[in-house]
Amino acid sequence: MSLGQDGPPTRTRMPEGHGGHGGGARRPQPRRALVTVVSIIALLVAALAFANRGSHPSSSGSANNGTAAGSGATAGSSGGGGGGGKTGTDAPTAPSGQKPVTGKSGGIPSGFAHSGEGAQSAAANYAVFLGGDGMYSAARRHEIVDTVYAADTAAKVQSDLDKVYSDAAFLQRIGLKPDGTAPAGMTFISRVNPVGAKAEKISGDTATVSVWFSSLFGLAGEGSTNPVAESWYTNTFEMKWVGNDWKIVSFQQKDGPTPVGRDQAASSAQDMTNAVNGFGGFTYAR
Predict the structure, then answer these.
(1) Do residues 21 and 50 touch, judged by C-beta distance below 8 A?
(2) Does some domain include residue 212?
(3) In 3D, which of 80, 6, 15, 9 has the Cα closest to residue 217?
(4) SS3 of 274, please?
(5) Element holding 154 (H helix, E strand)
(6) Which residues contact residue 18 at a Cβ distance below 8 angstroms, ignoring those fewer than 6 apart?
(7) Model's pTM, two decimal places?
(8) How far apart are CA 240 and CA 153, in angstroms?
(9) Cα–Cα separations (whole angstroms), residue 60 to 12, 24, 31, 248, 284
(10) Counted domains in the chain
(11) Are 261 and 239 in contact (CB under 8 A)?
(12) Helix or strand (DSSP H, E) at 253
């Protein structure tokens, strides 16, 4: 959603070796300890995955009922309203589709179409918030979870995520202070950038949707022990139609597909800080 510490549900990479996403370094694998402790936090995995940039070989992790999200970038909005549910699957997301939704709940796009395309848009948007830096603020995290999760799931997820995000050891590992903020002179970034979505299964009021995305995670600034790096994941969300909108019931996360890295030199800490502060995230997807 973003996620965990020593054993996040899906992928959690702690700064131990700091492999980092960018600069050609392969991101370490997530820790699974948290997974056993908080199996529900799949999204949390994302955050943890980044944190755990250690030395574990890549593997696909999974978790249920995670929260991923965040503030940095917001994923696409789409869907237009209504339309009855449909059986089967819709074509993968494309540059065009139904008009974006205009409604918002807690600053998060809402009011997606009751269709496969609407479910894809909802999943992409929710992935962004669940994997964003907003998850590191208790108040904002609660708002995100209450907005994107089905009510009968949100309470449990909320409790599990609070345990993870308030864990001082986890926060220290990724270079943040006990209150979840970045040290002086540093800029924290946790941003999910959806590349595409696919409706695996759509049947009436339930949907299974996969979202493929790249993620930036780390601290930008001179002397950072957890530099901003990039990783690739695919989240598969189980969703249901509740209150005239799509809501998350649970999800799983796995590594990749990961493209071959180009032979590009990593930017300086200052350039990365300027980019993080100068370029805002998007709301996109169908």
Answers:
(1) yes
(2) yes
(3) 15
(4) helix
(5) helix 151-165
(6) 53, 225, 226, 227
(7) 0.70
(8) 11
(9) 11, 20, 11, 21, 26
(10) 1
(11) no
(12) strand 245-255
pLDDT averaged per 10 residues in sequence order, the chain, 286 residues: 39 34 37 34 47 36 39 34 40 58 86 92 94 94 96 92 93 92 92 92 96 94 88 97 96 93 85 83 62
Overall residue count recorded for the chain in this entry: 286
Is residue 190 situated within a structural domain?
A: yes
**Buried b / exposed e along 195-208 (16+ C-beta atoms within 10 A):** ebbbbeebeeeebb
Beta strands in 136-228 (DSSP E): 187-203, 206-220
User: Given the structure tokens 């609407």, which residue do they identify?
Assistant: 118
> 186 phi and psi, to 5 degrees?
-115, 155
Whether 248 maps to a domain, the answer reads yes
Amino acid at 277: N
Report how far residue 109's alpha carbon sits from residue 76's, in angstroms, rounded to the nearest whole number: 8
* Range of the structural domain that residue 260 is part of: 33-278
